[in-house]
């Protein structure tokens, strides 16, 4: 399919092009390639960033993308997905492990590309593009990536005289949803796909954000920082040592059951507010909503698995920002996403109040349209896998945005749909203990899944246990863990009461529950 899009012949895997990034720029600057008008600029080497050619493309009327061409192209393409409702091209570099993925690919010799998905906004929490623009909604939902790919493949053929030998898609959050959209709806487009913390049941996930906010907005339901610490500490006391070491990370998540945690032990006397040493009934109702599956009786099949309590709810990028809005419900990230979704997809009214007027099923047809446009829930990946595609899922177990249980549920459904033999041969799920949404948290959040995927596709070397690290501001590892293929988890086998040993991956083994 790629050759059909771009023309020419593909490079042999692993071959580096003799065309420099400056020469590639000269061949593409000011040209219209496929449907895209292109402007190319040579970017010199800087600290931590190699020299490359930055190609900015526009597909009329408003689909923008950025293609980065390395100094020596390895013949492969890395497509990096966007976050939230997109609205801008993800930059090449960023401050955290998640935002570094395109730079990692560029340094390895990949041509790497990202898109704004067809609309422009200063915030990726803004769904206003979908209010009156059906084409923009279709682009965001599923069509932006294949549309951009057509022009990108042709641009590579024009610059280098060949199309990519391998093409991979990787993304987190909405980028993970995009990854799964392409595996399900466009199975011929990529040779390998990495879906990190995928927001794949978009309509139900936004609806679960809505029910969380409804529970939190009730009188007396807001948590103080001390109450969040109380909750998280209670979970750690019950579950942290289950993996063999008390290190602030619950790694044996399968054993950390609701019965073991027993959240009702934190109930205030009579269920009434009684200070920071207990939880009121209104606060326990928030926890109940958080951990329950969200379902809507009028829309069969629309559901989102609840979150598991994980012991890291008190982290700075966890409950405080995603659920509580640092004490203001309307500043919570979950509130902002569900509010914009409600206004622009469901109510079709920018002035609607999602909490006072909000009913996720107020317009069943609009809800079904939201699902049709954006959901990636089809578990049958056989069209993608049958042509040799490889599929990796990854999810942080402390993710406060998208429950790791969603990835577990999809992976199990997918295995049932394609069969265990094909799933074992072509799919993997990795859970990263103590990692928040896409990155951050107490756990090891950096892992090079692209290198593992490329070895799998190009050499047939199926990934098993990988390495996960937490890096400091200079890129040096401060914590390492084995990244275990599900259903395994990292169990500590090192010396007791040795904090330094607990930071080394060599002191863990991947074990089955």
TrEMBL record:
Source organism, top-level taxon: Bacteria
Protein name from the UniProt record: Tannase/feruloyl esterase family alpha/beta hydrolase
Family (UniProt): Belongs to the tannase family.
GO molecular function: carboxylic ester hydrolase activity; metal ion binding
Keywords from the named record: Calcium, Disulfide bond, Hydrolase, Metal-binding, Serine esterase, Signal
């Amino acid at each position: 399919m790629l050759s059909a899009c771009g023309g020419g012949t593909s490079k042999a895997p692993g071959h580096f092009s003799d065309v420099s990034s400056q020469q590639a720029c000269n061949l593409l600057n000011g040209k219209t390639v496929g449907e895209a008008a292109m402007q190319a600029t040579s970017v010199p080497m800087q600290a931590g960033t190699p020299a490359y050619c930055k190609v900015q493309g526009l597909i009329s009327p408003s689909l923008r993308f950025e293609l980065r061409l390395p100094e020596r192209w390895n013949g492969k393409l890395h497509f990096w997905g966007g976050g939230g409702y997109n609205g801008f091209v993800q930059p090449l570099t960023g401050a955290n492990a998640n935002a570094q993925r395109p730079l990692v690919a560029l340094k390895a010799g990949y041509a790497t590309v990202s898109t704004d998905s067809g609309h422009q906004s200063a915030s990726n929490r803004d769904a206003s593009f979908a209010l009156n623009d059906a084409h923009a909604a279709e682009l965001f939902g599923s069509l932006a990536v294949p549309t951009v790919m057509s022009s990108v493949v042709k641009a590579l053929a024009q610059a280098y005289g060949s199309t990519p030998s391998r093409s991979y898609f990787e993304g987190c959050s909405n980028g993970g949803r995009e990854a799964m959209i392409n595996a399900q709806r466009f199975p011929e487009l990529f040779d390998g796909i990495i879906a990190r913390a995928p927001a794949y049941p978009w309509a139900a996930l936004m609806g679960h954000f809505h029910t969380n906010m409804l529970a939190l907005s009730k009188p007396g339901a807001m948590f103080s920082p001390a109450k969040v610490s109380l909750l998280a500490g209670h979970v750690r006391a019950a579950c942290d040592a289950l993996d063999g070491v008390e290190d602030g990370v619950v790694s044996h998540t399968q054993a950390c059951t609701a019965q073991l945690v027993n959240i009702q032990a934190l109930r205030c006397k009579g269920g009434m507010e009684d200070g920071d040493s207990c939880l009121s009934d209104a606060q326990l109702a928030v926890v109940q909503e958080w951990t329950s599956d969200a379902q809507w009786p009028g829309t069969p099949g629309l559901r989102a698995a609840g979150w598991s309590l994980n012991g890291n709810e008190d982290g700075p990028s966890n409950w405080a920002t995603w659920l509580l809005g640092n004490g203001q419900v309307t500043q919570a990230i979950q509130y902002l996403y569900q509010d914009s979704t409600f206004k622009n997809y469901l109510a079709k009214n920018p002035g609607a109040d999602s909490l006072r007027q909000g009913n996720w099923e107020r317009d069943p047809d609009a809800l079904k349209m939201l699902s049709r446009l954006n959901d990636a829930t089809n578990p049958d990946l056989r069209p993608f896998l049958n042509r040799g595609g490889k599929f990796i899922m990854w999810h942080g177990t402390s993710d406060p945005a998208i429950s790791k249980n969603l990835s577990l549920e999809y992976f199990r459904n997918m295995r049932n749909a394609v069969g265990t033999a094909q799933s074992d041969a072509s799919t993997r799920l990795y859970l990263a203990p103590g990692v928040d949404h896409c990155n951050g948290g107490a756990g090891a959040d950096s892992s090079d899944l692209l290198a593992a995927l490329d070895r799998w596709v190009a050499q047939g070397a199926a990934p098993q246990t990988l390495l996960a690290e937490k890096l400091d501001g200079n890129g040096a590892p401060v914590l390492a863990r084995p990244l275990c293929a599900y259903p395994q988890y990292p169990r500590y086998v090192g010396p007791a009461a040795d904090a330094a040993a607990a930071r080394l991956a060599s002191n863990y083994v991947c074990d089955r529950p």
